[in-house]
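Lecture 7 notes: from sequence to structure.

We start with a single chain of 502 residues. Read the sequence below before looking at the structure.
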Amino acid sequence: MKPLTKNMFRDIAKSKGRFIAIILIIMLGVLIFVGVKAAGPSLNDSLNTTVTDKKLSDVQLISTTGFTQKDLNLAEKVSGAKAERVKYKQVVGSKSHVAMALYGYKKTNKQNQLIIRSGHLPSKSNEIILDQVAKTKYGYKLGDKFSFDKSADLKSRTYKIVGFASSPQYIDNESRGASNVGDGTVRMFAYIYDKQMNLPFATQLNVRFDKLQSKNTFSDSYKDAVDHKVKKLKTAFKGRAKERSDSLVGDNLKTLDQQQKQLNDAKGQLMLASSAGTDVSEQLMTLNSQQTQLTVGYDKLHKQTKTSYTWQTREDLPGFSAYGESSDRIAAIANVFPVFFFLIAALITFTTITRMIEEARGQIGTFKALGYTKWEIAKNYFYYALTAGLIGTLLGAVIGNESLPRIVLALYKQYIPLTWDVKFQWMIVLIALIFALLATVGAAMIVVRRELSEGPAALMRPKAPKSAKKILLERIKPLWNHLSFNRKVSYRNLFRSSHECS
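Now the structure, written as tokens:
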């Protein structure tokens, strides 16, 4: 080993504290920089992984008159679309008589899978799985009975609780959306067997596109792609609402016409009986009452049977926009706070290395006098700074990337249990490495170059102290002249030291 290199290792061994301090300062700066910068992407990636695993639909379509197989076929005509029909309605239930989002459970449905928190999915017609908030906020337990109001119009009003769950459709535990029943706010969701709901048709159509699942659900690319698919779906359903309404009117009209025919036949028979002298006044009153009801039925049929659709994407689901805005705010903070903190760490590192090299002026002068080239002298300090910078960056990047995002995710308890997806942020680490090397290697090269510009004799002599300058207080003669000697020395040292540090 060359004498100069031996000397460098000897210096490191003698000043382990300084070497470790540089590593720790760089590590802390990189840790904060990488950790906070990685928090926002980790929040988005974790939710994206969760909704992808649970097959959250990209588009939800709700109809006032329900969906048939024809509607499902229309949706799947759009390239890449997979559609499922679900019975859904808002009802009132629980001991508190709150508004609820009630879904019909079918084993064949694959989209919008629940995240089971405890218990299991319904396996019998008298079983129900409830929103986790029913347990945490309303005190329900497994095995309890859960009742619905009569207005819910179900096959049964009471069901046995067999599980509690979270849903990718409701990622925010504090928000379940608005309701047209109860107090106007949905408080929880629930799933019972599909056949337990007295609905002739499914009222919600979920549509999912496999090719979109590789995109981040909060990215502009995903949003643009979904908007394009919604336009395609609306084109496919153009005219379908009127067709559906006409179909329902036609079916119901046949029923009413049949009832009218039966009523007319009954009237004919009564008229024959009346002409034969039989008193049929009571029967005629009954028929007239039935005729009135039938007329009302005709009027309602033509006035009230109207199909309308409500289109939703993931952005319209409760809590989705708020979650995205929250991660954006963290990302915005990450553009300011950690950068400022890292710059402080870089400044401290720069100052530390500068002082270290200035203290070694005598050694640098000696090696220069012995004939070593500038590069041979400089590269040892270069390797010293490079080693400290690389070790500090590596430790800070790994610890920061793996710890701070997980801490942030753990704090997001108001949202559903996320599948943590913390990716290593290579680009952010690369930026941190560049800053770290500028603070360490850059400092070393600048100072060494400045020192090497002097001759060996000048380097081996102690560096001349800076010429004294008057401080501002000295210029205020009446005040300065009344200060004691010790106070004058103290003020000079204080202000000059602060000036040098700045």
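Residues 469-502 form one domain. Keep this in mind for problem set 3.
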